[in-house]
Design a protein that fits this description.
The complex is a heterodimer of chains A (about 290) and B (about 230). Chain A is of the alpha+beta class. Chain A contains ten helices and four strands; from the N terminus they run ααβαβααβαβαααα. Chain B is α/β, with parallel strands linked by helices and about 230 residues long. The radius of gyration of chain B is 17 Å and the shape is globular. Chain B folds into two domains: about 150 residues, 3-Layer(aba) Sandwich (Rossmann fold); about 70 residues, no CATH class. Bound molecules: adenosine-5'-triphosphate and magnesium ion.
């Protein structure tokens, strides 16, 4: 494409946007809102995921050995080879007692007498994505193991929240997407109508179909990208503010932040803007531009 | 230049607009296409520029069968054919110059060539002095001359005119006819659909008459009606 031709397309596209000012503003508003919602959805799910990965790292499986075991190291070696186990930590009975004492003070150890009835134990840290239930089952089967306790309830709750967010989010986004498409299609239809005479003459003097189409496509694409830019601006400012306000609670509520994350958000929004703008005008041209 | 053989057009509503029309127009000819309303004149011209496709039969322009063209080829075909209309089809927000230049811009002609060609054709139709005027400030005859200039700007081999004098008074009509005659004299083949009996009778050119889609007469140097 010659630069002059592209200049012509761009001029016509901008002309179309200015000609239907009211429609352009309405469309831009709706696209921005749609992409803003999409962005919120992305931020929410990304943070939930991030939070979950952090939580997974905290999940531990505790394995208590039978009192009769005299050589805990052998059992430990077996436990370490189980699939999904990242690290094992030996917790000897003495330490178990110390922990109890720390937690409950002197009373905690009162019942212990001289004999420490606490068994030796191991704490298993899990590899990412490993299923604690599965590991617990395997660990129970290891000879010398008395009991296994695992604590993944919270993480499973998080996983469920993510699933729920995905389902509700996708339904809402589908509706939003339809609204965005609808408004783009209608905006372009107005331009097609306003330019119908020009288009007729262009066709008659031998302009190619793509030459006729490009200004309309470009108009939709510009709309989509402008909407994406606005949505990104709102989101990154708003989210930055949120992260800043919540920085004190970072330990309990860790939020994703940083340049890479912003880039991802930007790419996602602009891709969506491009897609909806381009696809919307394409649909409109299919329906209203008889070339 | 233009060949039709058993050319038939049946619209989807069942109207037979052209019925087995066969004709040949040689390079450099001036041909009137006459016939009552609904005879199929516009339909024929529309087939020549592929605004419509034939139902059956053959149609060739410049030795190229145009019955089966890809979209891109249709665009190229149209660049070799000029068309003028009863309603001029000018863009009201563009000046005379811009209206004519538009035809070259949208086929991506070189900028320098555009300027040169536009001024050449505006001079030919006698509108150099009104190059930067809007169509709304022009008379009907002048608007038709702009339309003519636009149709000629890409140096077509064939010029189609669908009732170009339909909206003009007799004197102005003759101005347009003089221009067409001049353009034809310079080598452009012209096919003109018209109801204007006086013009056809006086020009003494080849006349092809259609009636209800059928070719009913083809006389060299003929008149509007069959002479006794
Ligand atoms: N798009 C269309 N769909 C259906 N029928 C059509 C269509 N265009 C034309 N016709 C019919 O085809 C026939 C020929 O029409 P056409 O316009 O070619 O006539 P014409 O000779 O140009 O008439 P006029 O002198 O009034 O311009 C008419 O009966 C018309 O109603
Ligand atoms: Mg007609």
């Amino acid at each position: 494409m010659k630069p002059r031709t592209f200049g012509y397309f761009l001029r016509e596209a901008l002309h179309g946007l200015v000609r239907n000012r009211l429609m352009t503003i309405t469309a831009l508003g709706i696209i921005t809102i749609g992409l803003f919602l999409f962005g919120i959805f992305l931020l929410l799910t990304a943070n939930l995921r991030y939070f979950t990965t952090l939580a997974w790292k905290e999940v531990e499986v505790r394995v208590f050995l039978q009192p009769s075991v005299t050589d805990p190291a052998t059992v430990g070696a077996q436990l370490a080879t189980l699939p999904g186990v990242a690290k094992i930590t030996f917790v000897p009975k003495a330490e178990g007692a110390a922990t109890l004492e720390r937690l409950f003070g002197q009373q905690g150890t009162l019942f212990l007498n001289d004999e420490n009835p606490l068994p030796d134990a191991y704490t298993l840290s899990l590899a990412e994505k490993a299923d604690p239930q599965e590991i617990a089952k395997l660990a129970t089967a290891v000879p010398g193991v008395e009991e296994v306790i695992c604590g993944q309830d919270f993480v499973e709750f998080l996983e469920m929240i993510i699933q729920l967010t995905l389902i509700v989010g996708l339904i809402l986004l589908t509706l939003t997407a339809l609204a965005v498409l609808y408004i783009v299609v209608n905006t372009i239809q107005l331009t097609v109508y306003a330019r119908r005479k020009e288009v007729e003459i262009m066709k008659l003097v031998g302009a190619t179909d793509s030459f006729v189409r490009w200004p309309f496509l470009l108009e939709g694409i510009i709309l989509g990208l402008l909407g994406a830019g606005l949505a990104f601006l709102l989101l990154s400012k708003g989210y930055g503010f949120l992260v800043h306000r919540l920085r004190l609670y970072r330990r309990f509520l860790p939020l994703l932040s940083g340049g890479e994350f912003q880039t991802h958000l930007m790419v996602a929004l602009f891709t969506m803007g491009l897609f909806f703008g381009g696809f919307g005008s394409h649909v409109s041209l299919k329906r209203y531009l008889k070339v | 230049m233009l060949i039709a053989k058993d050319l038939t057009k049946i619209f989807s509503n069942g109207v037979v607009a052209l019925d087995q029309v066969s004709l040949t127009v040689q390079k450099g000819e001036f041909v009137f296409l006459v016939g009552p309303s609904g005879a199929g004149k516009s339909t024929f011209l529309n087939l020549v520029i592929r605004r419509d496709n034939p139902t059956s039969g053959l149609i060739a322009v410049n030795q190229q069968n145009i019955a089966f063209l890809k979209k891109k080829e249709i665009a190229l075909l149209r660049r070799s054919i000029g068309v003028i209309f009863q309603d001029y089809k000018l863009l009201p927000q563009k000046t005379v110059y811009e209206n004519v230049a538009f035809a070259l811009e949208v086929i991506e002609a070189r900028t320098r060539a555009i300027k040169e060609r536009v001024y050449t054709v505006l001079e030919l139709v006698g509108l150099l002095g009104k190059a930067h005027v809007l169509p709304s400030e022009l008379s009907g005859g002048e608007q038709q001359r702009v339309c003519l200039a636009r149709s000629l700007v890409n140096k077509p081999l064939l010029l189609l005119a669908d009732e170009p004098t339909g909206n003009l008074d007799p004197d102005t009509s003759w101005e347009i006819m003089e221009l067409l005659r001049e353009i034809n004299r310079r080598g452009t083949t012209i096919v003109m659909a018209t109801h204007n009996r006086e013009i056809v009778d006086q020009m003494r050119k080849r006349v092809i008459a259609l009636d209800h889609g059928k070719l009913v007469r083809d006389t060299p140097k003929g008149g509007y009606h069959l002479e006794a």
